[in-house]
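yo

u said u wanted the structure for the complex thing, so here. seqs first:
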Amino acid sequence: MSILKKGVKAIKKVAKKAVGFVKKYWKQIALVALIVFTAGVATLGAGAFSAAWTGAAGFSAKMGVVGSTMWTGVTAAAGSLGIGGGASGTVAAQAGVTGYGLGAGMGLGNSFGLGVAGANASAAATAAATATPLAGISPLASSVGLPANGVGIAVNPATGLSVAPTTAKTFAAANTMAPSAAVPAKAGFFSSDLAKSALITTGGNMISGYAAGKAAEGEDPKGFWGVDLSGKGQDVAFNSGLMNQQPAFSAPQAPQDFAPQAPMSPQQQMEMFRYQQQYGLMNPQNGYAAPGVPA
Amino acid sequence: MSQELVDSLNKQVEQYIHGTAREEILAQLEQNPTTDTMAQIVHDLIMGLAETANSRGAPVELDIILAVATEAIDILAEIIEAMGAPEPEGPDALREETLVKIVILHMESVQDDPEEKAAAMEMLQELTADGSVDEAMGYVQKRTQMTAEQMRAQGEGMVAPKMNPLSEGVQKGLMQ
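structre next:
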């Protein structure tokens, strides 16, 4: 059996210097590969990791799969009493797991559901303790489009991890991990305030530039009905009948309160006359007279 | 001594790729210039090296294996680049994806072994304790962010005004 086929047992002997001879610019990714390997062997298995990796579209999504695999392995190792056991969360927290949360932490808007962000250790541990199926892989299903019949990772408190076929829908529904609060989700560029202000400014500049250009050519930009603010174009508008056209909108209807009332009774007319005279609204000297009273 | 061994192995790898196995490797890459092909070639190569070393009673340690693997990936990536194969995510991503793909191939050879799982759990605890996991997570986060920014830049480029066809033609004429 070769050293490679011994796998992790061989790696363990040289864990401290695992990337000792790797070129400088390769060191970090080599370390990532090492951790992904051990995490994959410890928890997900090659099949689940490979399926998630293959289903991930684009480099960012693939790195998201790498991050989630690392997180799953680390959480499992910290709570080595067994993922899903009630005590494992506490154990993970006490073991000092830094805590890695998955969620819409980075990327363009929420379209990149994947990513790795620092998370509250106890929250991560609690999630690991209670998530069934395993939460760590769940965001992948909805975000990077695992095949409909993907691979599910279920955690049984009694037996530990198991891998079984399931559906992407199940994955998504089972996602019990909230997005990490440590790295707030970045809104897409076009929904950001910066973009809005840039677009508005650009739009305003375009309109101003158009008007200035037309003015420089001795031509005023035309407004509604072809009449500009200085009145130019009125003759054309009148002659062509443009200004005689009825507007497309209809006048608002008078509310019911303002509709014509039934004729007032003589008593009502007298009351109204007295009221108007008292407040000087009507003066008999000006020709007004109370009903039945000569002016 | 170990550095000399690494240098010697790297030289052998280079001679193997550019010499002994050149035609076969080129044929494979021309047929399918992907990270899958690169990973399979490098995985076969390092498995062969490790088995040879084992048979001589001098097993090669993992850091040396990784050094050889990354050197081999570099060489193959240069060949792919010279062939003009598309690299939609850039040269670094091509190399990194290949290494992870090799990990998957290797993972398949040790899965479902209870002893390996137990050893993996123990090693992950060690890697967490010495800060390696933090470092690796930081790198993954950085790479994901970097690519997201690149994609955003591409998105901004898409809304840039199109060049006037006439001026584009003039520009092409000037360049010719």
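Residues 262-295 of chain A form one domain. The beta strands of chain A are 100-102, 116-118, 151-156, 160-165.
cya
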